[in-house]
Write a structure and sequence with these properties.
Strands 2, 9, 10, 11, 12 and 13 form a six-stranded antiparallel sheet that branches. This protein is 5% helix and 30% strand. The longest helix has 10 residues. It is built from two helices and 18 strands. It has one domain: Immunoglobulin-like, CATH 2.60.40. By secondary structure, the chain is mainly beta.
Length: 280
């Protein structure tokens, strides 16, 4: 299993993912799925290796660096083991130093973070489907104190369902998935309650459904974990090979005011078109 983490810092925030697949031959991936009675989403049962192997932990402190300041949090001042421990538990994450080098000592629990499907998806047209998501975890009351250089005296451990990395998470998201012909798919993720600035990147995109003469070669699926966290999956219609899937790391889906993180598994290095890409 290959893992790809994408994190971006933005001022005007909207996520555009465009996938175009041509002539890619991949093996079918194991899906680890089970049926669910709630909502219309299929539940993905996380493999034990994802839950137990430290190398699959999602870093909860990507901004911890004594040589830089990120999101107003300057840890080069009085940076101590206690400070790092407190900053971790305040975010609602787990602190564990008994790991090998390169493994996150502060990580996001699998049962926190991510977003849930708020209501049944809406079919805007034959080529466009819209999903409304809502954030699962609540923000720790102390998290905003972390933007101060003297935060160490005012923070405490977050409660059971509290989690936030930076305290400015967007509560509700609008996800639109559109197709253009048999082998192109586009997904946009936006703030559902506020219109934000988007960089005016010229994108040639004509939503159009596949036809009987040209049937779809790839399809989008929304899955969920046992903790109701949704994931985005794109797979082939014929072989069911999974091209990318965020479900196994749905707890790492962060949509903050100026920070986005999405983690996807990919079955091969030969995946073409992940990101804001269009090609003739």
């Amino acid at each position: 299993m290959r893992q790809l983490a994408i994190a971006v810092v933005l001022i005007g925030l909207a996520v555009h993912l465009h996938v175009e697949v041509k002539g890619l031959i991949l093996k079918t991936s194991e899906s680890h799925t089970m049926s669910s009675q709630s909502q219309s989403l299929e539940t993905v049962n996380l493999p034990d290796i994802i839950k137990n192997d430290p190398k699959y932990r999602i870093d909860c402190n990507p901004d911890i660096d004594e040589y830089r300041s990120f999101c107003g949090l300057n840890l080069s001042i009085n940076r101590t083991l206690n400070t790092t421990t407190q900053s971790c538990t305040t975010r609602g994450c787990i602190w564990d130093t008994n790991v090998e080098s390169g493994i996150p000592t502060c990580y996001i629990p699998v049962d926190k973070g991510g977003y849930a499907l708020k209501e049944e998806p809406t079919q805007l047209s034959s080529a466009i489907t819209q999903y409304l998501l809502t954030r699962l975890s609540t923000k720790p009351l102390q998290i905003r104190s972390m933007t101060s250089e003297s935060f160490t005296n005012s923070i405490s451990t977050a409660r059971t369902n509290q989690f936030s990395m930076f305290g400015r998470d967007i509560e509700n998201l609008k996800v639109q998935v559109s197709v253009s012909g048999p082998q192109m798919l586009r997904m946009t993720i936006r703030d559902a309650n506020a219109e934000r600035y988007e960089v005016p990147v010229p994108i040639r995109w004509d939503p159009s459904p596949s036809t009987t003469a040209t049937p779809a070669k790839i399809e989008f699926q929304m899955k969920k974990t046992m903790n109701e966290q949704v994931g985005f999956r794109v797979q082939r219609t014929d072989s069911k090979s999974i091209l990318f899937d965020t479900t196994l790391f749905a707890n790492g889906f962060i949509y903050d005011d100026q920070f986005i993180q999405i983690i996807t598994t990919i079955p091969s290095r030969n995946v073409y078109g992940f990101g804001e890409e269009t090609h003739p």
